[in-house]
Write a structure and sequence with these properties.
Elements lengths: L1 H15 L2 E2 L7 H13 L3 E5 L5 E3 L4 E3 L5 E11 L7 E2 L5 E2 L3 E6 L4 E9 L4 E6 L11
Parallel strand pairs: 1-2, 2-5, 3-5, 4-8, 5-9, 8-10
Antiparallel strand pairs: 6-7
Length: 138
């Protein structure tokens, strides 16, 4: 009996360390919901997109969670042409306060096989806190 309880406990611990947002992301609503869930539930570590999904955003998507997060795109494309706005400065420099995907975290963000296209502002923004360590892998 003790071995069975230990096995169940280990499986539960493994499952909770790699939680995935419930459904595959396939549109703006499901993406916003998946990110909102990850913002409030630190057990969510992965968000998986439907294979080759085409997602048109009308507002930026903002992640504020404390846990590391992996986006598994599976060839999905996010069209950010309507996700924000900008103004042109006198020298024709675009000035903006937003982006298509915004990450406000000091945790690891991993993005695999996901395209952000036609961003009206900045495509992917990672706001790194002052005291965080930054490592960019290529």
């Amino acid at each position: 009996m003790k071995n069975t309880i230990l096995s169940i406990s280990i499986l539960a611990a493994l499952a909770s360390t790699n939680a995935i947002a419930m459904n595959e992301v396939n549109d703006e609503d499901s993406l916003q919901q998946a990110i909102a869930s990850a913002n409030t539930d630190s057990s969510i570590k992965k968000i998986v997109f439907e294979r080759n999904a085409k997602i048109n955003l009308t507002a930026p998507v903002i992640y504020n969670g404390m846990q590391s997060l992996t986006l598994i795109g599976q060839g999905a494309t996010i069209d950010g042409s309507s996700a924000g706005d900008f103004v042109l400065d006198t020298d024709l420099t675009a000035i903006t306060e937003d982006g298509t995907l915004i990450f406000n975290t000091s945790s690891n963000i991993n993005i695999h096989n996901l395209t952000v296209a036609n961003s009206a502002t900045r495509g992917i923004v990672v706001n790194v806190p002052f005291n965080a360590t930054v490592m960019i892998l290529r």
